[in-house]
Amino acid sequence: MAVPQLKEGEFNAFRDYLQSVCGILLGENKEYLVVSRLRSVMTEKKLDGMSALLSEMKRDNRLRETVVDAMTTNETLWFRDNHPFRILRERLLPEFAEKRKPLNIWCAASSTGQEPYSISIEIEEFKRKKPGGLTGEKIVATDISPTALEIAKKGQYEKIHLSRGMPQEFLTRYFEEVEPGRWKAKKDITGKVDFRTLNLLNSFASLGKFDVVYCRNVLIYFSTELKTDILTRIHGTLKPGGYLFLGASESLNGLNDHYEMVQCNPGLIYQAK
Question: Which of 8, 41, 151, 239 stands 20 to 30 A from 158 (CA)?
Answer without folding.
Answer: 41
